[in-house]
Each structure stands twice: as C-alpha cells, then as structure tokens.
Amino acid sequence: MYEISVDCSFSAAHALRHYRGKCEQVHGHNYKVRVTVAGEKLDDTGLLIDFADLRSAITGVARRLDHQFLNELPPFDRVNPSAENLARHFFDEVAKQVGNGLRLSQVTVWETDVSSATYRPTR
Questions:
Q1: What is the number of other CB atoms lying within 10 angstroms of the CB of residue 4?
Q2: Disulfide-capable partner of 14 in 20, 80, 81, 98 (CB 3.0 to 4.6 Å)?
C-alpha cells in the first residue's frame, strides 16, 4: 500500500455553537490541512497521484473557506465549524476528485500548532 500526503493552509473565523467557553465567541485560526491518499498501484510514471493534482483539489476547497466566517457558509451554516467537521468536509469534497483506484485515507485539520482533528472513514 502506498500513501502520499499534501498540506495546505487557510485562515478563517468561526464561533462554536452550543459550546461553553471562549470558543463560543467569534475567533479565527490559521488552519493547516493534510490530505492523505492511498492506493495499491503506481502509474506508469511511478506515481500514486501527482502531488500537483492532489494539491489543486485541496486548495480548491480551502480557497472557498479562506478569510471567511465559516458559520455563514454551507455546510457550516447548519453543522458546527469544529476542526472535526472541517476534516470531514475536506474529506468529502476532495474524495469527489480522487479516482483511478485511489482512496482518501484520512484528513487532518490543525487549528493550532498543537491541536488537530483527523477524519478517517470506517472500513
């Protein structure tokens, strides 16, 4: 099994609904996102997937969120914009763009240098 990962970053504000503490107030983060793709076979070039293609898929999702108030954007106008839900959102959106026998293995979102959440589907 081969795996590759690509990172990207974006900045956004959010407020956690139904949370008791300072994170219920509007505040921002410089998020870092890591998307990992897995597969059994390499292509004729010896690549699982081109880093540039994976980076393009990830940055497309990040660009829609960058410098926005997440609570006002779908799906976060209905779903709490937690790091966990952001990881799931990136997973679902990038998975639509990954094909050819590949699968998204996991997505990790960091809100800070020391705090992250990972989404990985149940097999």
A1: 17
A2: 81
For the record, the structure tokens of 40 come out as 């059994």
What's the CATH architecture for 2-119? 2-Layer Sandwich (3.30)
pTM of the model: 0.94
Q: Which residues are catalytic?
A: 23, 67, 111
Residue % of the chain over a pLDDT of 70: 99
**Element holding 71 (H helix, E strand):** none
SS3 category, 69: strand
In b/e form, how buried is each residue of 11-33, taking b as 16+ CB within 10 angstroms? ebebebeeeeeeeeeeeebebbb
Beta bridge mates, 37 = 4, 104
Q: Lowest mean pLDDT: which of 2-11, 59-68, 98-107?
A: 98-107
Q: Which among 121, 111, 117 has a CA at the least distance from the CA of 70?
A: 111
Q: Where are the domains of the chain?
A: 2-119
